[in-house]
């Protein structure tokens, strides 16, 4: 089986400095890149991740080592791993502590938006995790709030409307992060996605909270209404 270091060497071998500069610029130069587009990254890592997914337990050592690497593709690799069905099926309620640690480290929308899906898997399997999401929605760190807001993005009919409303209400006009772009975008995104399943609920939520909602949130949430 390919080792972590061999996987990184494969990334290095396929690096592209021109693409790396463009990718870094797109992410506001917060991170360095190898310059490997997503389709190529997934092609290069397919065999490695397939083998890792067969392991008995989630390899958190691998995940955190990838999080310590300088190039962003390594964090993407860790997220690709956690999102694999065979891996996510092994996630435990206690793993939310690890997700939290990742979410606030090297935080930016790209990593957090990958982790919200992972957190969502844990919440679906563990109803008691809903209280943790509610706590995160009022956290001092706005990236944790964003993760909580969007962890039900793919839930569709399984969405807990009461929880979604409570989480968003923690992030309206009286919130310390009321003017934060990434929070208001997340609110709009969460409501927009759920409007595909229950447009009446989303319409009523906007109608009842519009004065407290940022215009960006309302605009995004109303896209399919």
Automatic annotation (TrEMBL):
InterPro entries the record matches: ARM-type_fold, DNA_alkylation
Signal peptide: none
Coiled coil, from the record: none
Superkingdom of origin organism: Bacteria
One Pfam entry name: DNA_alkylation
Database matches in PANTHER family: ARMADILLO-TYPE FOLD (PTHR34070), DNA ALKYLATION REPAIR PROTEIN (PTHR34070:SF1)
Protein name per Swiss-Prot or TrEMBL: DNA alkylation repair enzyme
């Amino acid at each position: 089986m390919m080792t972590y270091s061999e996987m990184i060497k494969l990334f290095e071998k396929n690096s592209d400095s021109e693409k790396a500069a463009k990718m870094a610029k797109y992410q506001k130069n917060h991170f360095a890149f190898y310059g490997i587009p997503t389709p190529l990254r997934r092609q290069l890592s397919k065999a490695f991740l397939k083998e890792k997914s067969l392991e008995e337990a989630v390899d958190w050592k691998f995940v955190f080592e990838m999080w310590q690497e300088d190039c962003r593709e390594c964090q993407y690799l860790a997220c690709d791993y956690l999102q694999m069905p065979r891996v996510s099926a092994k996630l435990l309620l206690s793993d939310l502590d690890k997700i939290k640690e990742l979410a606030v480290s090297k935080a930016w929308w790209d990593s957090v938006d990958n982790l919200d899906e992972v957190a969502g898997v844990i919440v679906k399997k563990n109803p008691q995790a809903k209280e943790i999401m509610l706590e995160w929605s009022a956290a001092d760190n706005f990236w944790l709030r964003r993760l909580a807001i969007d962890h039900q993005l793919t839930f569709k009919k399984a969405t807990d409307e009461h929880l979604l409303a409570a989480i968003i209400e923690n992030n309206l006009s009286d919130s310390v992060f009321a003017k934060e772009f990434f929070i208001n975008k997340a609110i709009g995104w969460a409501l927009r996605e759920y409007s595909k399943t229950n447009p009446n609920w989303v319409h009523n939520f906007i109608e009842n909270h519009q004065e407290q909602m940022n215009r960006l949130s309302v605009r995004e949430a109303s896209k399919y209404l």
